[in-house]
Design brief:
By secondary structure, the chain is an all-beta fold. It has no helices and eleven strands. It has strands spanning about 1-5, 10-15, 20-25, 35-40, 45-50, 60, 70-75, 80-85, 90-100, 110, 115-120. The strands form two sheets. Strands 2, 4, 5, 6, 9, 10 and 11 form a seven-stranded mixed beta sheet that branches. Strands 1-3-8-7 form a four-stranded antiparallel beta sheet, with no helix packed on it.
Length: about 120
C-alpha cells in the first residue's frame, strides 16, 4: 500500500508561481512512477507530468511543457510540481498519483486527496 498527501496549493494571482509537494509513505518499488493530474469542475481528470522512481525519466503533457516542472527528492520520496506563469485556466484540484509504469491515463493505482489551486485574474 502507498499513501500520498499533496500540499502547496492555494490562491495565487495570474502570472504567479506555486510549488506543489507530494509526500509518499508505504512500500514503493523501483518500477513505480509518480504523476500529477488535475481536475477542474465539470472536466475530466487531466494528465500533467510524470517521473520515474530514480527521477531519470519524465513525461509532460504538451499543454504544460516549459510551464510546469516535475522533480523528485529520492531520499525523502517527495515529488514536486513547480508551476510558473499560472493562468486562471490552471485553477483546479491537483492530484498526485503512483503507478507501476508510465501512463497518461487517470488509471493510476494510488491517489492522494488533492490540493486546490485557484488562480485569480
Amino acid at each position: 500500500q502507498v499513501q500520498l498527501e499533496e500540499s502547496g496549493g492555494g490562491l495565487v494571482q495570474a502570472g504567479g508561481s506555486l510549488r506543489l509537494s507530494c509526500s509518499t509513505s508505504g512500500t514503493v518499488y523501483g518500477n513505480y512512477v509518480w504523476a500529477w493530474f488535475r481536475q477542474a469542475p465539470g472536466k475530466e481528470r487531466e494528465f500533467l507530468a510524470a517521473i520515474d522512481w530514480r527521477g531519470a525519466n519524465t513525461d509532460y503533457a504538451d499543454s504544460v511543457k516549459g510551464h510546469f516542472t516535475i522533480s523528485k527528492d529520492n531520499w525523502k520520496t517527495m515529488v514536486f510540481l513547480q508551476m510558473n506563469n499560472l493562468k486562471p485556466e490552471d485553477s483546479a484540484t491537483y492530484y498526485c498519483a503512483v503507478n507501476a509504469g508510465f501512463s497518461r491515463k487517470p488509471d493510476y493505482d494510488y491517489w492522494g486527496q488533492g490540493t486546490q489551486v485557484t488562480v485569480s485574474s
